[in-house]
Amino acid sequence: METRVRIAVIGSGPAGLSAASRAAQLGLAHVLIEKTDHLSDTIYKYQKGKHVMATPSSLVLRSDLDFEAGKRETVLGTWDDQTAGNKVNVLYNAEISAITGEKGNFSLKTKSGDVVIAETVILAIGTQGNPNLVRCPVGEGAVVQYQLDDPGEYIDEHITVIGAGDAGIENAMGLAADPQQRNKVTIVNRSADFATAKDANVKALVAMEAEGRITVLRETTASKIDKGTITFDTRDGELQVPCDRVIARMGSAPPRAFVEGACAEFEEKDGRKVIKPGTGIEFTSADRVAYPKLSPSFESTVPGIYVIGALAGYPLIKHCMNQGYDVVEFINGNKSLKPADEPILADKFAKLPGNRSVDEWLTTFGSQIDIFQEVSPLQLRELMLDSTVASFTAGEAVFERNDPGTSLFAIAEGSVLVEIDKDDPSKTVPIGQGSIFGEVGLISGRRRGSTIRAAEPTVVVELARNAALKLISTVPPAGRAITRTSIERQLLQIFGSGLTSADVAEVVEGAEVRDVRAGDVVLKEGETGDDIYVIRRGSMIVEKTIAGKPVFLSYLPAGSYVGEMALIDGQPRSATVKAAIKSEVIRLPGEAFSRLLKKKPQLLAKAQAEMASRRDVNAFIEGRRDIFSSVVDMYSETAQFLVDNGIGEATDVLLIDETLCVGCDNCEKACADSHEGLSRLDREAGKTYAHLHVPTSCRHCEHPHCMADCPPNAIKRGPDGEVFIDDTCIGCGNCQRNCPYGVIRMDSVPPPKPTLLEWLFFGKGPGPGEPSKYWRKKNAVPGEEKPKKAIKCDMCSGIEGGPACVRACPTGAAIRVAPEAFLTVARLGDES
Fold first, then answer.
1. Which segments of the chain belong to CATH 3.30.70.20?
2. Rounded distance, CA 832 to CA 827, Å?
3. Upstream peptide bond of 315 is cis (omega within 30 degrees of 0)
4. Contacts of 321 (CB under 8 A, 6+ apart)
5. Does the domain made of 506-623 have the CATH classification 2.60.120.10?
6. What does the pLDDT look like over 404-449, one tens digit per residue?
7. Which CATH fold topology does 144-248 show?
């Protein structure tokens, strides 16, 4: 059977339905081709009862079909009724196997042998039929599925959902919604942020986690799936839990082979048929998740074939429906139509200089900013909706040193200067047009490390953290560009010695970022190798085998590097380096780094000096092994105890020497008196090894667990690295649940106490330290009971003299130290 139409729409999802309805309303000969026996298969396969969101709320819906947020069944019912009412011509059970021909005369062949002849083709096929598969080993008998139809079908099961985008979160919440089903649901997110999920979904998930109905594993990946169990790589090491079923919702990729093959010419290459370059529909890059190259009117590189919806990189339903409407208008000759988001972007860009149109600014951003080079025009529009644009005059600060902020900046026009010396603003490093800055805050969550000013009139795009993370995850070339820039700048900062970007270019080009599980070995003593490793995130411990036993040498925080000794002297590795916690390292190719050392004598001299220092430590241990055998063993075991108790991710930790502590509790009292009557530490709690005690007090982790899922973003880092909670805390308790060390408590602030003198001379008040619950209750003002909030050590930020707990200790038993300063075997030499 052969059908002739002006427009053939392939796929009846929101984009395809809207396109076909617009064609019907305009009286254009059309056909909507659907491979199943029902409309909108992707939403049809949503879990039963799923709430379908209509975001973004600021975007006007432009379609001949209605769409409001509601249950899956209601949405589908509305579309079925209105599609029939609009007299859309639907061809069901018709799967297209090939598209040939040219504009004005395309031939679409179905698998059943039918043919549709069309002047233009609209591809609205989505990506859900091509899900990303789990990458870990799957044992025989293990159940892994990529779709959840009805959460009510599963009862009394341990279910793991891998992937924390919208689909994964909604599946997990659906499985845990009914307590009578007794499902134990775990959802796994590979990062600490839910970058690709809607804010409403994230908040709902966090609420269910708080109620104990769902277990959320952050910064975790599955390493093995077996029948009855699943094994994870977590931030703190390996974890195995019961698992009857895995539901993998890790996104999907375009059906590339089918799309690229549309109207393509083929040629023989190495005995295979491949697409001839310059034919078929081209993609923005070779990455599996890349999208087709499209014009602003959605036309692909094959004239007459248009691409809309999720296949175009615009997955939100409202966006898809607007595209369906717009593309038919474009095909019908409406050249003046602007996208529905045009007024929003016009208002956003109005503050920029030059009185340029939205299209002109988008062209500027897309062509002049490096990380946007592979972003399609449609993706760029969506990205701009979630970003801020701003212009700065010469000398104006974009942000100041120690400002809070985790956003990423991209320079569209102009350049900026980075003030690298806080005491001398004249010492600067330039960053030019097209590049980025602020990536340190994006990666680490720390406050801004430098002041950055415009060197000339400058226009920047500021990407909010979630927008930047979404860009990294959905546009791999952008992610690689950000990674490359961050590596380059980290190397220049660590090695210094007058190096420039050009000097390290070869090393950066060959650099590789690797994830390292807690306990995994990066360098092994005795092995050969010349690669250098930079600790990008996390921390490492260094050990040396002496008399058959591993002896702890030192602790290395993020920003350190190892491996240069073997590179310089050509000898086997002199020590073992392994991850104290889950970490990231940058592997620098030895050959390239060796060439850099030969070209830069200053860098070689610096590396040799550090190598000599490490050799001194090795010689110290080996030379005193017999004399201080018990001391070395004790130190090594003590260091391992500290690492096992969280020192590996600390930046500042409170330690108490039990041989000096007299149990006066002055530390707790001083802490309470400095913080509205509530102590931030528990001296007696915590673990002890030998004479060293680790009380329950905040470690101010390099990448704090407590910062994850703080709804008001109330947890911040101070200029000295302290992690503190500000007054915007709403008392949700997420930080308390996420902290693995039990150092956060939820409590209400007690009423003000009388002064110390009033207590001493008149007996007023409860005295020094934290008031008792009886006093707090007795002195509370009726009707003014304060809600609970999160309370933790803030290192006495803003209090002159430093931590009150240390100042109040009469014997010097309490100390606060950075682990890299404390965990070094060189201290043995000082003490001996």
1. 637-749+786-831
2. 8
3. no
4. 14, 15, 17, 18, 61, 62, 63, 65, 67
5. yes
6. 788 999 999 999 999 988 888 888 889 999 999 998 777 766 678 7
7. FAD/NAD(P)-binding domain (3.50.50)
